[in-house]
Amino acid sequence: MGRDRYVDFLRAWAIVLVVCGHWLITGLEHGPDGGIRAPELLAAVPWTQWLTLGFQIMPLFFLAGGHAAGGSWERERAAGGTAAGWVGRRAVRLLLPTGVYSGLVLLAVGIAAGVGVDPYTLSLVGWAMAMQFWFLPVYLVLSALTPVLHAAHRRWGPRVPVAMGAVALAADAVVAAGQPSYVGLLNYVLVWGVAYQLGFCWRDGLLGGGRAVPALLAAGGGLGFALLVALGPFPVSLILVTGQHPSNTNPPSAAMLAWAVAQVGACLLVAPAVRRLVARERVWRLVRPAGGASMTLYLWHMLPVLVIAAACYLTGIAPEPGFGSLTWWALRMPWLVVLGLVMVGVLVVLRPVERGVAAVYERGRSGAGPDRARTWSLWLALAASVVALSRFAVRGFAPDGRFPVLPALGLAVGLALVALVALPGLLSVRPPAPRSGDPAAKDSVEEAA
């Protein structure tokens, strides 16, 4: 099966919308003490919660991820590869740039704490730089489960996401009934896993060749969401709002599941038209760079906010109309444009870092895959990484204005072990042999692009 440009478009589109959504709802103002505050727009101006219906686009990223992972794992199996080797390389591709980002942010947190930066300010900045991390542990878990999930897909096809959705609804009902909240943690894998599993089905043509099945998914999911919001206990916001209970994202709720199904259906309905659009080379030249920089965009997109806060708000040159007023909304467009320009500069500065990370990955790929003993190390290292990333996602890089010693250590150890196990060529003194004929290598290059 050839490369599907529409899948690349979905990944790029999802990341760009997430970035723009975060920028749009982020507002800065001076506090009574002269410091910078970031009021929560969705809580302060409740009608803006409806905007999350357009900006909560991550179901499509999991859909595209499942589509790509299904093809990648099939090629790995055909080439005689192992599950541990494939999972390890996928994890490293995610963890290497995440480790570089986290290391630099933690270094800045350590320096700021050492020179006596106000704990509240440090905590706020640390949270802003980690607010996107919820996605990483979920995607790592789904990647690690891919060989099992794909085996189930080969045997039962679309019945697998249906069963996962049913279990997710049961788990949500348990949480809604006030039972142990840890049951809801299952839905991080189950709800987002439904979209991921539908990616397998989409790739294998199991969602119908016409418009009937996509239309049913879109209409059924949309109607389900509307009923759950109108008649049930769920809010309309698809992004976490402080003090709002229940939440559609923490953990993912039945309403989020319905919205994910609706998005998948809508995505398949518009696929033919968008494929024709991205088949034009002029359009593809715009899409491909955005897709290639998607991980960098996702990790670093709050840095421009901090840059503008320091350059314009701390100096007092930025206008500060009433939060949520008409003038405030009118200034959102120049705000987005300025942040976009700063982000372009960040991407340019980080380009050598991206190349270095890619070079480390390609060098490490040479050598034999992990043996049985090292496979256990891989799973333990992945568990440590997932726990550390989850901790950052919940509490930020500077909880209560302090350096997070244990999560930082957990991520460092997890990343080091995953890299050493999955990339045995890292310790080799010989240059890696060319791997142009290796299907896994081809997959790595395509995803990097």
Automatic annotation (TrEMBL):
Acyltransferase domain residues are 5-348
- GO MF terms held by the record: acyltransferase activity
Q: Which organism is it from?
A: Streptomyces cellulosae
Q: Does the keyword Chaperone apply?
A: no
Q: What is this protein called?
A: Acyltransferase
Listed InterPro entries: Acyl_transf_3_dom (IPR002656)
* Enzyme Commission number(s): 2.3.1.-
Q: Where are the transmembrane segments?
A: 12-30, 50-73, 94-115, 127-148, 160-179, 185-202, 214-234, 254-274, 295-318, 333-353, 373-393, 405-427
Q: Which UniProt keywords apply?
A: Acyltransferase, Membrane, Transferase, Transmembrane, Transmembrane helix
Q: Return the Pfam families for the record.
A: Acyl_transf_3
Q: Which domain of life is it from?
A: Bacteria
